[in-house]
Amino acid sequence: MRAAVRRLGNSSGVIIPRPFLDEAGVAVGDVMDISLEEGKIVLAPVQRRARAGWAAASRTLSEAGDNGLVWPEFANADDANLDW
């Protein structure tokens, strides 16, 4: 596939077809690494760490007093008959 380089303000860019983005797991707004390798421009999605930002989000919820259980305690119908 070929694509033309287009002017974007003071920069230039290439429109990346949606199927390419989908296959690469990239969405609009994602951060990309860009590098030059042997005369080729290479784009790669920045790998996010699993659970990145969870600690800060938990802290924010706690400070707001919004850290209660999402699902209240509940039991299965036959729990009273279980032998432990």
Q: What's the gist of this structure?
A:
The chain is an alpha+beta fold and 84 residues long. It has two helices and four strands; from the N terminus they run ββαββα. Helix content is 20%, strand content 21%.
How does this model look, in words?
By secondary structure, the protein is α+β, with helices and mostly antiparallel strands. The chain has one domain (6-81): Pemi-like Protein 1, Chain: D, CATH 2.10.260.10. Helices cover 20% and strands 21% of the residues. It has two helices and four strands. It has helices at residues 18-24, 54-63, and strands at 6-8, 11-13, 32-37, 40-45. It has a two-stranded antiparallel sheet. A hairpin with a 2-residue loop joins β1 (6-8) and β2. The longest helix is centred in the C-terminal third of the chain and has 10 residues, at 54-63. The model has no long low-confidence stretch (mean pLDDT 86).
Q: Which characteristics define this entry?
A:
84 residues; Pemi-like Protein 1, Chain: D; alpha+beta; elongated; two-stranded antiparallel ribbon
Strand content: 15-25%
**Helical content band:** 10-25%
Could you tell me the CATH topology label.
Answer: Pemi-like Protein 1, Chain: D
Lateral strand order in the biggest sheet: 1-2
Radius of gyration: 24 Å
Number of domains: 1
Number of strands: 4
CATH class membership: Mainly Beta
